[in-house]
Amino acid sequence: MSELGSYQESNELPVLQKIAQGNFFWALTGGGTLSARLDIRMVYLAYQIPIELITPEIFISFLEKFAPVAEHWFLLLKAMNITNEEKSPTMTL
After folding, report:
1. What does the pLDDT look like over 60-87, one tens digit per residue?
2. What is the total count of domains within the chain?
3. Which of 72-77's residues contact partners 24+ apart within 8 Å by CB, and which partners?
């Protein structure tokens, strides 16, 4: 999971529209799911991988896929005037 950034209340509708577009058949998320916590106006990107299938090779492959997708959405949200303290996305495993 990656916390991509928070958004201003005035940008809520455009942000949620982008999330909906990105999640449509996971076309713009590389199989991940974008979500928003409306109470704190925070956007996340998450993937589900069964832990029993994780090997070092699969984990590295996952990170190589995850990082550019998270960066894309981080930059897109930043361009939409997201407040994110000018930091890179954080990932939680």
Report:
1. 999 999 999 999 999 999 988 755 455 5
2. 1
3. 73/4, 73/22, 73/29, 73/34, 73/43, 73/45, 74/2, 74/4, 74/5, 76/18, 77/4, 77/5, 77/7, 77/15, 77/18, 77/43
